[in-house]
Amino acid sequence: MVYTKLARGRYLSSSAVNDIPKGHFSVYVGENNMKRFTIPLSYLEHPSFQTLLNMVEEEFEYTHPMGGLTFPCKEETFIKIIKDIQLEGVW
Predict the structure, then answer these.
(1) Are 62 and 69 in contact, with CB atoms under 8 Å apart?
(2) How confident is the model at residue 8 (pLDDT cuts 50, 70, 90)?
(3) Distance in angstroms (rounded) separating the CA atoms of residues 17 and 22
(4) Measured between alpha carbons, how far is 19 from 45 in angstroms, rounded to an integer?
(5) What is the pLDDT, as a whole number, of residue 65?
(6) CA 36, 41, 44: angle at the middle one, nearest 5?
(7) Which residues, listed in sequence order, are joined to residue 25 by a DSSP beta bridge?
(8) Listing from the earlier edge strand, what are the strands of the sheet with 2-7?
(9) For residues 30 and 35, what is the distance between their CA atoms, to the nearest angstrom?
(10) CB 3 within 8 A of CB 37
(11) Are the C-beta atoms of 70 and 56 separated by less than 8 Å?
(12) What GO terms in the biological process aspect are recorded for it (predicted)?
């Protein structure tokens, strides 16, 4: 499932892989049931997102059976990090 940010706090879901907007990438998030989120590429430069990427790399080496980048954390935690980045308004 894809979650694309429409407006603050709202996400669009879709199961299609080819619906990722230009300038975005997708990640899988969840502890048991993975959900797919579409994230702006600019977030890759944000320190909070880089910290999350480093933690995932150290613990899980970016592996996922479906072949995508996976954040095996609670969905709520991931959404909070994304909202914090959005609130800064720079990214």
Answers:
(1) yes
(2) very low
(3) 13
(4) 23
(5) 62
(6) 95
(7) 39
(8) 10-14, 2-7, 35-40, 24-29, 70-71
(9) 6
(10) yes
(11) yes
(12) response to auxin
Of 25 and 65, which is predicted with more confidence?
A: 25
How many whole angstroms separate alpha carbon 63 and alpha carbon 79?
A: 21
Locate tokens 């879709």: which residue? 14
Unique residue bearing structure tokens 């995932």: 56
Q: Which amino acid is at 8?
A: R
> Taking Cα atoms as reference points, which of 49, 48, 41, 35 lies closest to residue 20?
41
37 in Cβ contact with 78 (< 8 Å): yes
**What are the tens digits of pLDDT across the range 29-77?**
988 888 999 999 999 999 999 998 888 888 766 566 666 788 888 899 9
